[in-house]
Amino acid sequence: MTALADRLSEPQTPDLIGRPIASVGYGLYGTVLWKVPPQENRVFVGFDDSMPGLWLNDWFDAHLARRQQVLCRNELATKLWAAGEG
Hints:
Layout: E1 43-46, H1 55-64, E2 68-72, H2 76-85
Parallel strand pairs: 1-2
């Protein structure tokens, strides 16, 4: 049986072969109202701990770990909903 799966990181098991298929750009997004409070009071929707070593989570922690996170989830749809709800 042959299967194809897309992943955000290089496979770590020897029986999987990884090939890049696309480049994905990421950014920090917020509503216009997000800019109202002073920068040190802004809050973020972050990642939970269910996928340790995820490069995007590591980047977030390195740049924004000292900021308040009001929700920690890995599903992008949930994060988008939360950001839209303020």
